[in-house]
Specification:
The complex is a heterodimer. Chain A is an alpha+beta fold. Chain A is built from twelve helices and eleven strands. Chain B has a domain at about 40-65 and about 105-250: 3-Layer(aba) Sandwich (Rossmann fold). The chains are: A alpha+beta, B alpha/beta.
Chain lengths: ~425, ~260
Amino acid sequence: MLELTLSKYLIKPIYSILLTLGAIIGVASLIIILSLFYNYYLSSEKVFMGIHPHIEINKEMSSQEGQKVINRIKHHIADVINIQPALYVKVRTEISEVNRTKAFCIEQDDLMRCHTKSDGTGKLHTRYGFSIKKKQLTEMIVKGICLENGKPVMDFQKLINGSTNIKRIEQYEDTNHNPLPPGFYLEQGLFNALSGYFLVHFKGLEKRKKQYWLNGLLDMGTKKGKCPLIVMSLPSAQYALDKKNRINTIEIRIKQPYKAEKISQHIKDTLNDNSFSVENWIQKEKASFTFLTIIKWMLFSIVFSISVVAAISIFSTLYLTVLENRKKIAILKALGMKDVSIYIIFLLKTLTIGLMGTGLGCFIGYCGSHGFIYLFKESLEKLGIENPQPHLSMYDICVVAVFTIGLFLLTAIVPAHNAVKIDPIEGLNQ
Amino acid sequence: MEQSIINISNLNRKYNLIEGKRLVSSQQVFENLNFSVKRGEFVAVVGPSGCGKSTLLNIIGNLDSVGNKNYVKIHQSQDNDKEIRIPEIEGDGLVIVNEQDIRKLKGSRKAQFINKNIGFIFQFHHLIPELTALQNIALPMQINGQPKRIAFQTAFSLLKEMDMERHANRKPEILSGGEKQRVAIARALINSPAILLADEPTGSLHPQFKKDIINLFIRLNLEKNITIVMVTHDVDSLYNSSKKLIISRLFSLTGAPVIL
């Protein structure tokens, strides 16, 4: 094709090489960032979707009333795989990390602060005292949960740093029937210890600090209402928070989480009672998804600016090329070359650069995202991205390719138009 | 009556010199110019510099338009700041080339007309330096949409005709002035145009090559019956050529008598 041959002669090879390099860098960085971000996005979505209940029904009610609601939902909604009552309460809490030491318990009313060992007859043999290492007073969300076949609705096992034996929160005595301190999980950031004895004092609800066993720390994605979360068994929470036989939430896990909105509507229709508020995870995590989308657009803007810089360099190079080649373009016009062919010369050149840049850029971007993940796997895992993998769909690649080539072609229009507008007489006299 | 291949009637051309939104002066180049060339004629257009020889050639060759162009805003008068639009170049008239009113040609049709009907030869040959002699010659034929193979075959036969085949793959920079001009002539001939327009084709050549080039034009005119309009101010070169019948007619743009 004549236009292709001429484009080769009109635009210096060094310009073409530099422009192609620019395109490659732009496309490759776009691919790498998209791939890594998508990784993070998927990982976050998995956390949001997997950890929190897919649907929550909120209403202050008795455990019996809650059970009735649960039975009704189980009967009507086939998609439910786990449904349990829970209690959420925001409370000022003092948590003290302690060392337990054998000690003589001084008075009867100090029992709450002592771990007692019973011989089964009710006679006390051993008592423990506690030396407080550090303590913290903060507003916390206390969550009491139930387990069904050892599994909570809130699937937070993957976030646990420490013992993942969740059943421990429902164990109140050991195999010898000795009483055990209630187990609980605490959101990381308050204390960095992995396990041990804690004294917990719910201010205004209990007179004294009570001994608890820290089963593990929760990693991320669990913060509710800007307060750290503390998870324990429902009976422990009901007892500690002085809400005996009361619940305020029914948590539901469903087979198809992405259908949560539809199923929550179905639940509303089934309950047919406006005093119940039904929320699904998609609604609740809207802010998080919006945040992720904003980050995605910010990253896209950064990479977009790389492409814009590449496009500007193509524009300026082509613009200069037209200025440098006024005479040659005038000769072509004097030989009878059509305006459309002159357009094609410049558009073909940018198309070639765009195609080469996109092709090589996609390949380098694909290899680069694999290499990046291989090199920084540990760091990414520390960021909470579980088993990072490059995620690139054909759709993403097509979007990048179309965007890049489209942008490049756009940049060629003005220089090509300038070339077409060259007056052959002026050009020949140059 | 033999039909004219070029027929110009009442051609006017005026250049307006504008400085800082003021019309400074005007220069009338053509005033009701009438000019015609018969098919197969060899016409030399002569005249002093600036009399409009090249402009006439550019208008015939469709590189320049007949009408007004390059409109600019100027103040209506020295006392009045009201702006009016006037053309830097004013012109009108009828120009018919190969039975086509060239004023009606626009865009692709204009380009096609130039490509098929006109062969341009310039003083400074205007070859594309990145292309070889063969590629330069083949260019108009490729622009016309002919396959590369046929264009190159035709180009090579033209080079052979000009005894230049050994230079086929050489780039213009290593050719002499005369050789470059031969390549330019071959390029102008490749689409077998109806008219060859030569704008001072010997102007930049060493005297030794001038005669060769003029003789080549004469040969093309006599053997191939190609209509040639040549702009020159070098009348002597025409007379010093060895052929008996050199020029059908000398046309003086200044209207001064031409001594044959």
